[in-house]
Amino acid sequence: MRIKKGLTGLIVGALMLGLLAGCVGKNETNGGDNGGGAAGGKVKLTMWGAVPPENGPQEVVDTWNAEHPDIQVEYVRFVNDDDGNLKLDTALSTGQNVDLYVNYTLTNLDKRIKGGTALDLGEFTDYNIDEKMGEDAASWKVDGKYYGMPTKKNAAFFALNMKALDQAGLSVPKAWTWDEAREYALKLKAAGFKYGLVQHTASYVDPLDSVLVKNGYVKADGSSNLDDPLVTKWLETLNGMMKEDATTPPLGEQLTSKMPVENMFLGGESAMINIGEWLIRTSNNMTEFPRDWKIAFAPVPRLAAQEADMVKSGGLGDFIAINSKSKNKEAAWEFLKWYADGGMMPMAAGGRLPSSNAVDQQTAIDHLLGDYADSYDKESLEFVLYGDETPTFVRSIAQEVVDLRAQEYEKFFLGNQTAEVTVQNMVKRHNDWLKQNQ
Amino acid sequence: MHKSWMKRQSRLGYLFIGPNMIGVLLFFIIPAVYSFYLMFTDYKFMSPETNFVGLDNIRRMLNDDLFGVALRNTFVFLLAVPVSMGLAFIVAVALNKSVYWQKTLRALYFMPYITSGVAIAFVWMLLFQPTSGPINGFLRGIGITNPPGWLSTTEWSMYAIDIIWIWFMLGYNMIIYLAALQEIPEELVEAARIDGARPWQTIRQVIWPLVSPTTFLLLITGLIMTIKNFGIIQAITQGGPGNSTTVLSLFIYQNAFRYYEMGYAAAISWALFAIIMVFTVLQWLGQKRWVHY
Predict the structure, then answer these.
(1) What is the rounded CA–CA span in Å between residue A358 and residue A360?
(2) Mind listing the pLDDT tens digit for each residue in A257-284?
(3) What is the pLDDT, as a whole number, of residue A313?
(4) Which runs of consecutive H residues, i.e. helices, occur in A221-342?
(5) Where are the alpha helices (DSSP H) in chain B?
(6) With 50 as the cut, is the pLDDT of residue A4 above it?
(7) B259 contact A CB<8A
(8) Is the Cβ pair A256, B151 closer than 8 Å?
(9) Is the CB of residue B37 less than 8 Å away from at least one CB of chain A?
């Protein structure tokens, strides 16, 4: 009852705000900041992000504030889930004081651009995003324009228990297929692990997106391409690992226990984990997760047979936009440049490696690994972070499509429908969605 | 003079209810009217333009397989209401007599109702854990070799939610029933006993009819409350696995606040409103047969 009341309240509140936004939206000058402004020539900026302040952002803004008494930045945290993003979107469209905000997905960014709340950074000419951030930055372009700046290097990889690999006589792969990874999982399980591989449910679909980014989500005739043969290949590989090999936890088990996969990997229950740079935050916590073995790193395996056909999840992240209704765009821009070119360094310890080439790679890695550099296989880490030349993508499909896919493959992994029916359902629902949103 | 006094009085009356009426107008009437309007538009939150699309949203809803799934799940969810009321009645009758630990037991039964929903969600997820959870441990212990997978399967997940919801509502229903039971004149029960009625007969033919207005109240409010609820499902399964626990209210929430499809969400909201309306009217009409005031 309590939660229900709270949520009802939220809905009513949100509806009201939506209503007010509808009324106010036309009159753009109404927006902008309430907290900032000309008071004594001092500018106050508000930056919204989803990282808890104590994991770096507070240190970042404190450093800036100490150096720039005329431009003070305040950090506001929103949680990066539906409710949190709704809160940010509501704040943006009702003109509460948001000067800078971080986008974590292209889907969310897209809505914000359409809502007219992201500034086209093309109006600033003193910083070349393409040059500073490299080729990967371009996947954040919308209609050929930058409505913000990507600041962080995403890294998706397999982390491996090096001791187990050595004992089983397996090498650290630099490029591999899912069939090979499945073999690894079997051998490692045989070496005494409960599971060969664990992964977050959010990482499940990365191989699918790899395929579909390369081959297209939509066919030339405008219909869904979710029946690409590699989709079936993915379904069957993972299903085989769950049910035949028992080298990865069955989905039902994982969902209901909210399986703490990082802990399982670090605690020695699983020999491999499909994860990203944020693993380091946990693996550096030696008091809670002590270990006497090194972690090695490998790229995420590919479904396609040819190495040349691989596009991997990754690219750049933490795309920071300036609110187009902000009254302090210039100041926000100054802060943003400083942030990207090294100001964000305190956040590297939490896995957020700066993407700007103004930042030295070695310094970034030093920050990332902190005191425990010896407990990682440095060579393979540098390879997955900087050495691997495989092109990357940032997932850009609509939330509806992400969800409809998940609903169908969940039914498959739970044994409610065959792979064939799963693909048929995905295609049908995707086509319906395409028709609805043409 | 009398008339002007009346006028002044009524003006004063309006003044007193004014603040409240403004709240009702701002937070209930205007949003309701606005959502009715939204139903006929393609309004997406954050999107710059809104077009009038007529009955498109309603047509889309009727062709949407997920709407059908959500409707079915909602009806399964509603099964929890009569079950929870039945159990609550039995517990209330038992706790109405002088039994040991009477007050403690009452408090215990009421506990879920005042506990945070997120905590409830986590505890039940642990209990329902298919391989290592205590519920299936118990079921295996009594000889069921293949206990259900509860929240981890699409067949059982909605019933698992039902069980949680029954447990959650039990305390509230029980308290209301207890209040009703205490209102029953002792003479009636005594007269039945003197006439030779067995305890079961007394409960069925004296006590149950006497609390029927309470049953009616609990049924109507329980159904409405359940049909609107989604918080507990959002906390436990987010509508999954697959879409096996997506009820209508959650479906609305997802469309509105996950996909920002406000127009479509408004259309489903009004469909939900219509269903609640029909339910309530049917119950009002039906009550003459079994509710004794």
Answers:
(1) 7
(2) 788 999 999 999 999 999 998 899 899 9
(3) 87
(4) 229-243, 251-257, 261-266, 279-283, 329-338
(5) 2-24, 30-38, 56-63, 65-78, 80-96, 102-110, 117-128, 134-141, 157-183, 186-194, 199-202, 208-210, 212-228, 231-236, 248-253, 262-290
(6) no
(7) yes
(8) yes
(9) no
HSE toward the beta carbon, residue A356, CA cutoff 13 A? 21
Contact yes or no for A407 and B35 at CB 8 A: no
Low-confidence ranges of chain B (pLDDT < 50): none
Strand partners, A321: A101
User: E strands, A1-57, where?
Assistant: 43-49
Q: What is the pLDDT of residue B48?
A: 78
Contacts of A399 in chain B (CB under 8 A): 258-259
For CA atoms A281, A284, A286, A287, give the dihedral sign: negative
Q: Under a CB-based contact definition with an 8 Å cutoff, are residues B166 and B159 in contact?
A: no
B166: Cβ contacts below 8 Å, ≥ 6 apart: B80, B83, B84, B87
- B183, with CB counted inside 10 A (0-12, 13-18, 19+), is exposed
In this prediction, residue A383 carries a pLDDT of 93
Query: Residue A40, by phi and psi: left (phi above 0), alpha (psi -120 to 50) or beta?
Result: left
Residue B242 corresponds to which amino acid? G
CA nearest A158: which of A119, A113, A197? A197
Q: What is the mean pLDDT of residues A367-380?
A: 92
Q: State the residue for tokens 């879409």.
A: B243
Which amino acid makes up residue B89? F
Whether A16 shows a pLDDT value over 60: the answer reads: no
pLDDT of A189 higher than 80:
yes
| ipTM above 0.95 for this complex | no
| Minimum CA–CA partner of A402 in chain B | B259
What length does chain B have?
Answer: 293
From chain B, the residues in CB contact with A114 under 8 A are 46-48
Q: Closest chain B residue to A20 measured between Cα atoms?
A: B31
- A206: Cβ contacts below 8 Å, ≥ 6 apart: A156, A274, A300, A312, A313
- Enclosing H/E stretch for A369: helix A361-369
**Residue A3 confidence class, pLDDT cut points 50, 70, 90:** very low
Q: Which two tokens stand for residue A216?
A: 């297209």
Residue A304 CB neighbour total at 10 angstroms: 18
Rounded to the nearest angstrom, the minimum Cα separation between A290 and chain B is: 26
The residue that leads in pLDDT, A350 or B128, is B128
Residues of A in contact with B129 (CB under 8 A): 256-257
CA B267 – CA A24 distance, rounded (Å) = 24
In chain B, residues with a C-beta closer than 8 Å to the C-beta of A111 are 44-47, 260
For B227, nearest residue in chain A (alpha carbons): A4
Cβ <8 Å between B153 and A117:
no
pLDDT beyond 50 at A33 = no
Identify the pLDDT of residue A305.
87
Q: Are B27 and A12 inside 8 Å of each other by CB? A: yes
Cβ–Cβ under 8 Å, residues A218 and A434? yes
- Residue A281: the pLDDT is 86
Of A129, A101, A139, residue with least CA distance to A117:
A101
Q: pTM for this one? A: 0.85
Which of A70, A132, A123, A126 is CA-nearest to residue A342?
A: A132
The token pair at B167 is 């447990």
- To test the contact with chain A by mutation, choose from B46, B253, B264 the residue with the greatest count of A C-beta atoms within 10 A, namely B46
- Of A95, A130, A92, give the one whose Cα is nearest residue A108: A92
Tokens 């500034």 locate to A119
Q: B259 vs A400: CB contact, 8 Å cut-off?
A: yes
